[in-house]
Amino acid sequence: MNALVHLTHDCNLRCPYCFTGAKFAREMTVETAKRSAEFIVDHAKEHGQRAVFSFFGGEPMMAFDTLREMVLHAEKVADERGVHAVFRMNTNGLLIKEEHLAFFEQHDLIFILSIDGNQAMHDAERITESGHGSFEALAKKLPRFLEHNPGMMASVVVTPTNLKFAADGIRFLFDAGFRFLIIKPDITQPWSEADVAELSRQYELVAEDYLARMRRGDDLYLNLFDDKWINHAKGAEGISIRCDVGTSQISIAPSGNIYPCVRWVKEEEDTVPRLGDVWQGFIPHKLDEIRAASHAPKSPCGDCSYNDGRCANECACEHYSATGRIDTPAPALCEHERVMVPIADRVGNTLWREQNPIFLRKLYPKLAQIRTTTRSGEGATST
Predict the structure, then answer these.
(1) Beta strands in 92-224 (DSSP E)
(2) Strand-pair partners of 251
(3) pTM of the model
(4) Neighbour-count burial for 296-317, b at 16+ CB within 10 Å, e otherwise
(5) Which candidate, 202, 212, 228, places its Cα nearest to that of 175?
(6) Is 51 helix (H, G, I), strand (E, B) or coil?
(7) What is the pLDDT along the chain (383 residues), one digit of tens a residue?
(8) Taken in order 223, 239, 5, 250, is the CA torsion positive or negative?
(9) Cβ count within 10 A of residue 89
(10) How far apart are alpha carbons 205 and 251 in whole angstroms?
């Protein structure tokens, strides 16, 4: 089970695109945290799964004392139950200090950093409560973060406001030492025709930069391209990132209420579907309803040529946030994918023609191994 644990509704930033609802000082109690840990571990044991704790918010570092107590209790309970516990966190990084990094290392807690590229892109949206940009404070921490975890993943949100800086922002992150980037468009707001045209221009620049890096041997992951290739090469059976809302993933609010996923954790809204709580368990049939709606065909997709596993139209949580329906993607998502898929195809086709070793290893590891063995044999023969 992957449980996204919302330790607090509060945050030290006020990003306008944030999907977790109003920011207010409601923090999960230690009692609720411990009960949540037991619930997660017990559910994982029942289904023969790992217990994956993904700390979320708000900003989870604002509730670090609770996080620490939950980790310690979860380790104890998991050890008693014979379950493997894994700890992850999504954070803006601004509150992380050296003593926190030591705790993360001791308990193998890996964090994903929310950072929107370079200063121009980041400060366009990721602002403090007083309205100031947060980039300078975060940039000072990046070298230590990457030293702590060279494989740290960065999460970037592209919006109509910061869009014009996207290519430079993504380039900055790769130059700074990040090897794994997740880029997500904010599809909850409308994108104009001019925005879509600029999106295409920016992504073409990203594509050329990514090609250059792959050609010189940089082993990178950029979901915009890599996920499209994997989905195309391996088909529906091999899709690496598929919505599993209500199946193997849930969200737990500071109150202990259980929701299908992160975008539903808005306890101030009575209309948001709740699956139960960590004391009483799941509400009968609620999980089945959510799963059925999530797996149903997406209503506007029909026979769209991109509805073949490459389109990122699987996220029920994102659809609900944008349209109020699990089975109805936002129009902005369609526009994004119409821009993205052809660019990803072009980059992938280019790397295939060039027989790029990193590309082959990612998508066709057996073929890459054969080619490596053959080349080794050729070298031995010529010597």
Answers:
(1) 109-114, 153-158, 180-185, 221-222
(2) 4, 259
(3) 0.89
(4) eebebeeeeebeebbbbbbbbb
(5) 212
(6) strand
(7) 789 999 999 999 999 999 887 788 889 999 999 999 999 999 999 989 999 999 998 999 999 999 999 999 999 999 999 999 999 999 999 999 999 999 999 999 999 999 999 999 999 999 999 999 999 999 999 999 999 999 999 999 999 999 999 999 999 999 999 999 999 999 988 899 999 999 999 999 999 999 999 999 999 999 999 998 887 776 655 444 456 666 678 999 999 999 888 888 877 666 667 889 999 998 888 877 777 777 777 777 777 767 666 777 777 777 777 777 777 788 888 899 999 999 999 999 999 999 999 999 988 886 656 655 555 454 433 33
(8) positive
(9) 22
(10) 36
Residue type, 23: K
- Structural tokens at position 16: 């306008």
Place of tokens 């840990």: 37
Angle between helices 286-295 and 316-323 (to 10 degrees): 90
Identify the three-state secondary structure at position 379. helix
CA distance 117 to 38: 38
Count Cα atoms within 13 angstroms, Cβ side, for 89: 26
Is the link from the previous residue into 379 a cis peptide, with omega within 30 of 0? no
Task: Pull the structure tokens for residue 18.
Answer: 């944030």
- The secondary structure of residue 245, as a DSSP letter, is B
Rounded Cα distance between 359 and 352, Å, is: 7
